[in-house]
What we know:
Layout: E1 2-4, E2 8-11, H1 16-26, H2 37-42, H3 47-59, E3 70-75, E4 82-91, E5 97-98, E6 103-109, H4 120-134, E7 140-145, H5 149-157, E8 160-172, E9 175-184, H6 186-198
Parallel strand pairs: 6-7
Antiparallel strand pairs: 1-2, 2-3, 3-4, 4-5, 4-6, 7-9, 8-9
Amino acid sequence: MEIKNSKIILRDFIEADIDDRIHWETIETEWQLWDAPWENDENAFDPYSYRKECLEWLAKKKDENRVRMGFQICINDESRKHIGWCNTYYIDDNCEYTKEEGHCTIGIGIPDLSSRRKGYATFSWKLFIQYLIDNGIKDIYTQTWSGDERVLGLIKKLGFEECNRKYKFKTVRGQIYDALTFKLNKIKYNAFCELNKMNG
């Protein structure tokens, strides 16, 4: 499955993406300085296990009509270059990660350095959010930390509002930062979409 707008394509994960992700986890790793950097200290990436798990998942039969809870991000041009992903996970009422039912929370990663600051993240999340809303997801959340100024700009631009703050959550590169949770304000989101439509 794929959905697209003028800038990007969101599509299902394919086998060719495995090598891209291994590259981003082991070579082109600048993104890890900003995407929950403490997790990179806690969890060692094993390329062999990752490839094995992905191939097993790809081999499983799936309902093609299922609601996708994540997509790979590609540039919408002749290259269809794979530049990252957007995904969902769930948090509980305390804004903690949970494997149980909870609040739909979205994330994004664009490790490809040459694809930064070109609007791809904005267009990816706009398309992903609309897809989730169209498929019955009523409330959408996202989370980051107070030091990630780039994603904070994206979050606020799209109409998310801060709803929870955990002070002094983590120390990153010698500085103490807060953990932030945001909930999508659909009125602000719709206003952004209308303005974006007017501005092409």
